[in-house]
Design a protein that fits this description.
Shape: globular
Family: Belongs to the glycosyl hydrolase 47 family.
Structural class: alpha+beta
GO molecular function: calcium ion binding; mannosyl-oligosaccharide 1,2-alpha-mannosidase activity
Helix content: 40-55%
Subcellular location: Endomembrane system
Main location: membrane
Largest sheet: 4 strands, antiparallel
Function: Involved in the maturation of Asn-linked oligosaccharides. Progressively trim alpha-1,2-linked mannose residues from Man(9)GlcNAc(2) to produce Man(5)GlcNAc(2).
Number of helices: 20
Radius of gyration: 27 Å
Bound molecules: 1-deoxymannojirimycin
Strand order of the largest sheet: 1-6-5-4
Distance between the termini: 85 Å
Number of strands: 20
Length: 609
């Protein structure tokens, strides 16, 4: 209490009251300043993202489903960035998991790798190949028309590359209309996606000057110390896949060093109660999230099921079994879990290990999981019996439940929603012609011809969807009178995707039916006519429109996949022979791990059950 002696009571109490009010005001001002300061400081801490998530209400970040500011996870269905990853959206919470073990594991395995990585012998690997990787004569075809066509594809690659180099060097993709670069947010702050995705294409095409530039960029500028949030799937298929194949093709140590370092950064995503990784990972902190749009914090089949090939090779190169253990654990869970009608739904909880909803698709969300089963078997020199069994059982279930014939006689693979068929096929699902083709030979004897026929029929259907511009829509339907046509305006775009051409390439290698080269050439002409602009190649918004509208994006998979598959289509089969190489889902060739050769030294890599 205070006494103000010289003033009468009333006056002194008024004065005292005023003074107290003033003090209160100052005190409150100070307090609010302090709170603002502390709150503000939170945002400057290194992992401010987590704190923002705690403090910001969802209203402050309206695009996020539940309390997330994660740029990637707030992408909405229909966003091309998702679509190009082969993903579509759904409703659901954005779930975060930060496991305390994450950092320690990376430190331990880094030490582990340091000791063992140098033990890997590139020379020994080369002796394990049955044939020279680039063939007798770099796959040069003997007939002049095919050679000319191949030269055209090479010219397209050079044009795409030169423009990327000129306008977007070091960024992730080229925007050919505005002549600038695009970084996006798929790769967690990593840059140069088009460079890493192009290394092997440049090399096999003999664009050596360009390859050297790309290699030099990787050496000097590919910075893996990044604190951004990345799609585990995209970083794996493009960066890990791209660096692995560049290493296996060239033997340049820098690619091995970089890929093992990057692989380490992906490991914390597996620290979930089941070991099923979440879709989004912060490459710096190791924190991981499920996609905001994925049902109830689930992980996506096509994402966690598309790691196996690369992770086995990471173990090969680093000598670290952890990579293999992580993907073998995913395999084990998927093998054991009960499957509705033998089918694999697209969403699985990384916490409970149960399916979250019954949507099945061989296109977006499911696609490359099936691809990696058969390719794991092939890459294991046909010793991985578990993968083989899972692949052929899945195929059987797909044929029984999903494969349909349209009234017009077209074979297609429908989607399945809890027992109800959706009679549509995505462009992404068109890779399945090639997949079923390469799997035909190892199926049950009485089914072999059937699988080859099925592969040819699906490829034919996908070719039918490429009309009238000779480029195909993102999705096409087989109901209400539609026969492989897009019925919605929003499905009519083409973003330079490879899947249809990929199937032509495999079917050509398997059958040598000249129609596949013919169809590939049609696609080259259409790409030149509709997608080539003054400064690169661009996707188009409507494959049925007579006047094209460009989307201003030269996707990195155009250089890595579309142009590579076209080049291989017009090359002799001894360029990257299929006895020695399997292509990851981004078309990066990875060598078969021979049981008579490297496998002997790395007994953990292959399960022979
Ligand atoms: C590529 O990144 C890969 O092929 C992936 O498996 C699916 N989508 C794109 C190309 O369409």
């Amino acid at each position: 209490t205070r006494v103000i002696p010289s003033l009468p009571f009333s006056e002194s109490s008024v004065f005292a009251g005023t003074l107290l009010a003033f003090e209160k005001f100052v005190f409150l001002l100070f307090l609010s300043g302090l709170v603002t300061l502390c709150f503000g400081a939170l945002f400057f801490l290194p992992d401010s993202v987590r704190l923002k998530r705690i403090f910001l209400s969802k209203n402050e970040n309206p695009a996020v489903t539940v309390g997330s500011d994660n740029e990637l996870s707030k992408k909405v269905p229909g966003d091309p960035e998702h679509l190009r990853a082969g993903l579509k959206g759904g409703e659901g919470a954005n779930v975060k998991a930060q496991e305390p073990a994450a950092r320690d594991e990376r430190v331990t395995s880094a030490a582990h790798n340091g000791e063992r990585a140098s033990a890997y012998s590139y020379e020994a690997f080369k002796k394990c190949l049955l044939k020279p990787a680039l063939g007798k004569n770099k796959g040069t075809p003997s007939d002049s028309e095919t050679l000319q066509r191949r030269e055209k594809v090479k010219e397209m690659m050079k044009f795409a590359w030169d423009n990327y180099k000129r306008y977007a060097w070091g960024q992730n993709e080229l925007r050919p209309l505005t002549r600038n670069g695009h970084i996006g947010n798929m790769f967690g702050g990593l840059r140069g996606a088009s460079i890493v995705d192009s290394l092997d294409t440049l090399y096999i095409m003999g664009l050596m000057e360009e390859y050297e530039e790309a290699k030099e960029w990787v050496q000097n500028n590919l910075n893996l110390i990044s604190n951004g949030e990345a799609s585990l799937f995209e970083v794996n298929i493009r960066y890990v896949g791209g660096l692995l194949s560049a290493y296996y093709l060239t033997g340049a140590e820098i690619f091995k060093q970089k890929v093992v370092e990057l692989g380490e950064k992906l490991l914390p995503a597996f620290n979930t109660p089941t070991g099923i990784p979440r879709g989004v990972i912060n490459l710096g902190s190791g924190t991981s999230w499920s996609w905001g749009w994925a049902s109830a914090g689930s992980s996506i089949l096509a994402e966690f099921g598309t790691l196996h090939l690369e992770f086995l090779h990471l173990s090969q190169l680093s000598g670290n079994p952890l990579f293999t253990e992580k993907v073998m654990n995913i395999r084990k869970l998927l093998n054991k879990i009960e499957k509705p009608h033998g089918l694999y739904p697209n969403f699985l909880s990384p916490v409970s290990g149960n399916w979250v909803q019954h949507h099945v698709s061989i296109g977006g969300l499911g696609d490359s999981f099936y691809e990696y089963l058969i390719k794991s078997y092939l890459m294991s020199d046909k010793t991985d019996q578990e993968a083989k069994k899972m692949y052929y059982s899945a195929m059987e279930a797909i044929e029984t439940n999903l494969v349909q014939k349209s009234p017009g006689g077209l074979t297609y693979v429908a989607e399945w929603r809890g027992g109800i068929l959706d009679h549509k096929m995505g462009h992404l699902a068109c890779f399945s012609g090639g997949m079923i083709g390469i799997g035909a030979d190892d199926g049950p004897t009485e089914q072999r011809q059937h699988y080859l026929d099925l592969a040819a029929e699906i490829t034919h259907t996908c070719h039918e969807s490429y009309s009238p511009t000779k480029l195909g829509p993102e999705a096409f339907r087989f109901d209400a009178g539609a026969e492989a046509t897009a019925t919605r305006l929003s499905d009519r775009y083409y973003i330079l995707r490879p899947e249809v051409i990929e199937s032509y390439m495999y079917m050509w290698r398997l059958t040598h039916d000249p129609k596949y080269r013919q169809w590939g050439w049609e696609a080259v002409e259409a790409l030149e006519k509709h997608c080539r602009v003054d400064a690169g190649f661009s996707g188009i918004r409507d494959v049925y429109a007579s006047t094209v509208s460009h989307d201003n994006m030269q996707q990195s998979f155009f250089l890595s996949e579309t142009l590579k598959y076209l080049y291989l289509l017009f090359s002799d089969d001894d360029l990257l022979p299929l006895e020695d190489w399997v292509f990851n889902t981004e078309a990066h060739p990875l060598p078969v791990i021979r049981k008579t050769c490297l496998w002997r030294n790395f007994p953990w890599t292959i399960s022979e059950t």
